[in-house]
C-alpha cells in the first residue's frame, strides 16, 4: 500500500513527491509524459526564482530529473477513478488497482468540454478507458473520440477486439493508427441512445455504434473522485490544501488561479506536509488500539 498517491506529474505533483520521499513516505506519482504539460511548451520563463530565462522544457526536465534522482517513482498512466475504502483509497490505474492511504490531486487544468449525452450514458455505452471496457464490445462497432495522439493507443487496442473502430481525432496530425481503423474527420456533437448508446451524431451526419470511447489526457476531476467539493472547475481547498474528503489534498492549477509555477510548487509542498501529518496521526491512532 502506498502512503501517498499523487495524481499529476507537473510542478505541483513533483514538488509534493520530492518532499514526501524526503519524509520517508512510500510515494508514487501517476501522470502524463512531461511533454503534455502546459509549462513544457513555454519558450521562456523569467518569474521562477533561480531559473531565469529557462524554457518550459528545460524546467520540466530539471524538475523530473530532481525527483527521479531522489528515488521518486513516476508511472506514466492515467488514473480512471478513485474509490474510498474506509481509511484508504483505491485507484483504478488503467485497470490496475492500487491502494493508498492518502491522495494528492495535482492534475492541473482539465479540459471540461462535455459532449451532450456523455454524462447520461457513462457506463451505458460511454467509457473513458479502452483497456477497462474494451472486452465488453468484442465483435461490435465503436467510436473513439481522441483529444490527442495518446488516444491512438486505445484505438489500436480496440481494433484488436472490436468488429469495427471509427476514430474521430480532435487534433491535427495522426501518428500511429492501425490500418483497420476508419478515420472520420468530423466533430462529435451528441451521443444518441435510449437505455444504452446507439450511436453518435457528428458534423457530417450520424454513425451507429454500440460504444463511444472518449479518450482524454486526463479524466475530469468531478468524475475522478465522487464527493469532492468543487468551486466551479477548481477543487475547493483550505490554506493547508485539504479538500472536502479526509486524506485527500490538492495542489497546483487544479485548485484555481493564479496559474503560476511558483504557486504550484508551494502548494505541492504544503499538501504533502499536510498529508504526512495526516499519516502520522493515523499511525498514532493505530498504535493506541
Automatic annotation (TrEMBL):
Residues that span the membrane, as ranges: none
InterPro entries the UniProt entry points to: FAD/NAD-bd_sf, FAD/NAD-binding_dom, Ferredoxin-NADP_redctase_2
Gene3D superfamilies assigned: FAD/NAD(P)-binding domain (3.50.50.60)
FAD/NAD(P)-binding domain sequence ranges: 3-268
Keywords: Flavoprotein, Oxidoreductase
Gene Ontology molecular function terms on file: oxidoreductase activity
Source organism (scientific name): Candidatus Cellulosilyticum pullistercoris
Descriptive protein name: FAD-dependent oxidoreductase
Amino acid at each position: 500500500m502506498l502512503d501517498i498517491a499523487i495524481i499529476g506529474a507537473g510542478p505541483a505533483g513533483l514538488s509534493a513527491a520530492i518532499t514526501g520521499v524526503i519524509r520517508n513516505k512510500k510515494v508514487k506519482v501517476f501522470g502524463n509524459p512531461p511533454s503534455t504539460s502546459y509549462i513544457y511548451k513555454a519558450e521562456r520563463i523569467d518569474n521562477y526564482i533561480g531559473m531565469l530565462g529557462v524554457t518550459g522544457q528545460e524546467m520540466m526536465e530539471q524538475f523530473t530529473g530532481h525527483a527521479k534522482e531522489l528515488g521518486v517513482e513516476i508511472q506514466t498512466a492515467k488514473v480512471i477513478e478513485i474509490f474510498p475504502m474506509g481509511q484508504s483509497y483505491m485507484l483504478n490505474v488503467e485497470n490496475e488497482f492500487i491502494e493508498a492511504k492518502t491522495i494528492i490531486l495535482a492534475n492541473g487544468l482539465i479540459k471540461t468540454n462535455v459532449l451532450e449525452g456523455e454524462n447520461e450514458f457513462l457506463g451505458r455505452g460511454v467509457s473513458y478507458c479502452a483497456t477497462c471496457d474494451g472486452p465488453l464490445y468484442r465483435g461490435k462497432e465503436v467510436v473513439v473520440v481522441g483529444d490527442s495522439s495518446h488516444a491512438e493507443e486505445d484505438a489500436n487496442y480496440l481494433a484488436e477486439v472490436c468488429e469495427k473502430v471509427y476514430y474521430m481525432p480532435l487534433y491535427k496530425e495522426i501518428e500511429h493508427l492501425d490500418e483497420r481503423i476508419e478515420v472520420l474527420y468530423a466533430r462529435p456533437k451528441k451521443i444518441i441512445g435510449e437505455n444504452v448508446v446507439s450511436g453518435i451524431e457528428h458534423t457530417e451526419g450520424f454513425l451507429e455504434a454500440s460504444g463511444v470511447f472518449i479518450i482524454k489526457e486526463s479524466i475530469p476531476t468531478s468524475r475522478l473522485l465522487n464527493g469532492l467539493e468543487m468551486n466551479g472547475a477548481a477543487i475547493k481547498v483550505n490554506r493547508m490544501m485539504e479538500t472536502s474528503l479526509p486524506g485527500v489534498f490538492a495542489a497546483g492549477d487544479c485548485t484555481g488561479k493564479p496559474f503560476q509555477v511558483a504557486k504550484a510548487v508551494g502548494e505541492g509542498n504544503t499538501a504533502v506536509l499536510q498529508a504526512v501529518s495526516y499519516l502520522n496521526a493515523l499511525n498514532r491512532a493505530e498504535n493506541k488500539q
